[in-house]
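so my prof wants the structure for this chain in the tokens format not the other one, which i didnt know existed until like an hour ago. anyway here's the sequence
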Amino acid sequence: MGKKKSVLDLMKMKEKGEKVAWITAYDFPTAQFAEKAGMDMILVGDSLGMVVKGYKGTVPVTMDDCIAHCQDVRRGAEKTFIIGDMPFGSYQSSSTEAVNNAVRFLKESDVDAVKLEGGRRVADQIKAITDAGILVMGHIGLTPQSSGQLGGFKAQGLNPESGRELIKDALAIQEAGAFSILVEAIPPELTEFLTKKLDIPIYSIGAGLPCDGQLLICGDMLGMFQAFTPKFVKKYANVAEIEINAFKEYIKDVKEEKFPEEGHVYHIKEETKENYIKMLKEF
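here's what i got, hopefully its the right format
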């Protein structure tokens, strides 16, 4: 693994047309594996609410949750560019609160950047955080924290009116000083337009190929998250099936007394065996 990517490296990758590959991670081993594989970036997403904690959505996730998982991921991926997701309620009420929570992210978990959902409505918060010297990634399109307002987890920007609004949001985010934007579940035609129109990198999650890089949720791509699989996910493994089968085999071995085997136990030392047996008889 080489040196950690910087925001300048990410800009150079956009200029050269080199795609950025990144995933979410929420724990030490996944982060460690991602770094060893050569992942460009890691997002510690508030998707941890569903993937790790079993919530129905991301809204219940707290700052403490996000920071704790960011700390775990940083320990596993010391040389990877890490983005911390600012959870619902941590930035909406004021720019001051947004800056305070972004500062806390950096101080307590050593992330390289933070991510906020929303466009023009959070432009002031993005500007305030960037003015404080912190890198901010925007997030528009399907924004899970506000999925209720969107009518659920549905694709966005499918008609000219909503597409126009997303373009305005993207321009506002760039103007506010964000270093990049994540676009989720929007048409690839709109993704391509934004990628060419904006100076900052545009990254896709379910938004098609013509962009500066792709993100997937680790639980989705590894086949770990079982509740549902979004249309845009490609499964690269079926870890759930592997784990379930391993647990079944273990249960069977225990029930049939095939585990533990001789090689799995610690015996009394031969030179102390006689005394050990005497000791046991004392009881």
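also thought this was worth mentioning. The mean pLDDT is 94.
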